[in-house]
Amino acid sequence: MRYALISDIHANQPALDAVLAHIDARGDVQAIYHLGDLVGYSPFPNEVVNTLRTRGVAGIAGNYDSTVATDYKHCGCKSESVRQEELAHISYEYTRGEVTAGTKQYLGALPFSLDIRPFGGHASGPRLVLVHGTPTLNTVYFTEDRPDDFCRKMAAVAGLKAGDVLAFGHTHKPWHRIVDGVHFVNTGSVGRPKDGDWRAGYVVLDLGEGEAQVTHVRVPYDVEAAATAVIAAGLPEEFAEFLRTGGKVAPAH
């Protein structure tokens, strides 16, 4: 099976449109899954949710989705400065005021994780487990510098064995590592990359017979249209510049 994994769209409809068009143009993807954080920081939360619902893209809840759905006190985002904390609250309050009742209901119904088996549940074979942050919490950042023992702990929590794949997002930085035969895949971000590359990111995963194959893909999109929409919505200029620079200016998530 060939899967497309998309994560951290963060209400950026132009980026999502570009990624879905890119996946469609490939013509070789059997299923698309999203790994959460559909909303926040950009002005199209309802449009993003409607697109995914219309396309039948299944997925899981990110921290932004579950906190908005439950009216939590904050978004569960990590801030490294006072200004980042301010920006995170601005985004969160804007998003909570913008989402419709239908969007909020959809976000609240998203599962915490998904367990996907290419050969079906009636036969043994590799598993693909989708989470947003880690198998324990959607707010924990699974960064590339985590030691192998952390990877082993997360694999144990998810019950993974050699040949299986744990896919996640949340950090907005793509990477792939193999520990004890288990693949750990950060999909990066569709709508708010943080690795200095403004292009939308997603993963193509081949899983079935043989070793899992992971390909990180970057897609150009109309980032200026997205930035202009951010400003027009009354959101901070820092959010627009974040999109233009791939996260090199005033990171807030």
The helix count comes to: 8
Distance between the termini: 33 Å
What is the N-to-C order of secondary-structure elements (H for helix, E for strand)?
EHEHEHHHEEHEEEEEHH
The chain-level structural class is alpha/beta
Mean pLDDT over all positions? 95
User: How many distinct beta strands?
Assistant: 10
Shape by Cα distribution: globular
Q: Describe the largest sheet.
A: 5 strands, mixed
| Number of structural units classed as domains | 1
Which CATH-level-2 architecture? Answer: 4-Layer Sandwich
Radius of gyration: 17 Å
CATH topology: Purple Acid Phosphatase, chain A, domain 2
> Briefly, what CATH class?
Alpha Beta
CATH superfamily: Metallo-dependent phosphatases
Notes on the structure:
There is one protein chain. This protein has 253 residues and is an alpha/beta fold. The chain has one domain: Purple Acid Phosphatase, chain A, domain 2 (4-Layer Sandwich), CATH 3.60.21.10. The protein has eight helices and ten strands. It has helices spanning 13-26, 45-55, 63-70, 82-98, 101-109, 148-158, 223-232, 237-245; strands at residues 2-6, 31-34, 58-59, 114-116, 128-130, 165-168, 175-179, 182-186, 200-206, 213-219. Helix 3 (63-70) packs across helix 5 (101-109). The protein is globular. 49% of the residues are buried.
